[in-house]
Amino acid sequence: MHVEFRFHGTLREAAGRDRLERDLTLSDGATVGDALAAVLPEVPAVEPLALDSKGTLRAHVALRRNGEDVRSGEWLETPVAEDDRIDLEPSVKGAC
Predict the structure, then answer these.
(1) Could you read off the pLDDT of 34-73 as tens digits, one per residue?
(2) DSSP secondary structure, the chain, as one string
(3) Which of 7, 36, 65, 78 shows its CA 20 to 30 Å from the CA of 26?
């Protein structure tokens, strides 16, 4: 399954690149979490910034699948499909 990952902000700096495209071997019913688990070994500095010690997405990290924020749905259990794009970026909060 072909999946594109895009890294933004400090996660891009940690990854040393802004994108990573891979053909992943994932089972039917694969999730965003499965795709991340398959690709994070290639960008090991990203993992502790994106996931906590329990493997849960950190609250300050925005994760989108094809532009849709997965935090408002199934989080890492969001299904992933052929040619999906997964964006990881630090959330920006604050006031003007």
Answers:
(1) 999 999 999 999 999 999 999 888 888 999 999 999 887 7
(2) -EEEEEE-HHHHHHHTSSEEEEE----TT-BHHHHHHHHGGGSTTTHHHHB-TTSPBPTTEEEEETTEEGGGTTGGGSB--TTEEEEEEE------
(3) 7
DSSP letter assigned to residue 43: S
Tokens of 60: 């300050």
How far apart (Å, rounded) are the C-alpha atoms in residues 91 and 13?
A: 15
Q: Are 7 and 88 in contact (CB under 8 A)?
A: yes
